[in-house]
Amino acid sequence: MEPLASRIRPKTLEEFVGQEHLVGEGKPIRLAIEQGHIFSFVLWGPPGVGKTSLARIYSKAIKAELYELSAVTAGKNDIRKIVDAPNEDGHPRVLFLDEIHRFNKAQQDFLLPYVESGELVLIGATTENPSFEVISPLLSRLRVFVLNELSDEEMSEIIGRAGVEIGDEAREWLTAMANGDARQAITMIENTSDLYGELTVENFKNALQSKYLRYDKKGEEHYNTISAFIKSMRASQPDAAIYYLARMLDSGEDPKFIARRMVIFASEDIGLAVPTALVVANEVFRAVETIGLPECAINLAHGVAYLCNCKKDRSAYDALKEAMADVKKHGNLPIPLEIRNAPTRLMKDLKYGEGYDAYTSESLLPEKLKKKKYLK
Hints:
This protein is of the alpha/beta class. The chain has helices at residues 4-7, 20-23, 28-35, 51-61, 76-84, 105-117, 130-133, 136-139, 152-160, 168-178, 182-196, 201-209, 220-234, 238-250, 255-270, 277-291, 296-309, 315-330, 345-349; strands at residues 41-44, 65-70, 93-98, 121-126, 143-146. The chain has four domains: 18-146, Rossmann fold, CATH 3.40.50.300; 152-209, Helicase, Ruva Protein, domain 3, CATH 1.10.8; 220-309, Zinc Finger, Delta Prime, domain 3, CATH 1.20.272.10; 325-369, no CATH class.
């Protein structure tokens, strides 16, 4: 039987929930659909927010032949078969490539001429930053659309479409647990209903622990494990950190995902205490890219042990957060005249750059924030 998440998947923009910045009136994907604009793009966002649904709705709207592949299992031969297949009606061919970040450089290079010539309209889907994962020549030919986590209200609307009875308490628990992932919420409903019938908080919790809901790289256990991994490094506990590293690798986690979090950790938690930690973390990431599994697990373990044993200093990260809070609170405060750029005569007449002293000890912050100290 077709899974519930597939049965209630939206087939038109009118049925689609969320991502109003992309599909609302006058927004880019809606305009592309309404105008029949044919182009290649990447949908970047967390799991379960509508990437596959949007790709299918767009493909149907432009009357395309849609081919769906997962970069986890697909290769060059699969792409070659699509390109070589007869296309007598002349409709555009859309390749929806899920988890495009899993394609290596050689595979992406192979795709490039078909996208460039228009033989294939490529729609990539990824949970990872395409700036890191998609080669520059290919990325330059793609437009990137960022999808957001679904809000509680949007999640509630999607849950309501499942056509099952669920009380307010259970709905609230499920919404919080799914964390903006509609697919996870619908799968939980289906599995809990199959196992226990009634949809209650207790039954949801029991179903979550059952053998029917094993580790899912896109589900709650994924986020729990990476959280435990980061917190173990923060607490300078290499044994715990290496254990959670091993657990993620054993579950099939993308090693580049792990390495990327280590690069972030090096600046966020170690920062000024050991500035070269960022260099080490970046080299681990490069080693993971170059070597791949299984051997790159050794590089990861090496890096984790090093980062765990580094002294920790979050002052730069905390300073950034405080400064960001002030930017949101005060908006664009006037920049002091003496440090403004003065490329024109008029700007010089307005005293832009006047009195500039490269080595001044006076605060160069906007007047309203003169006494602020972010880096403590």
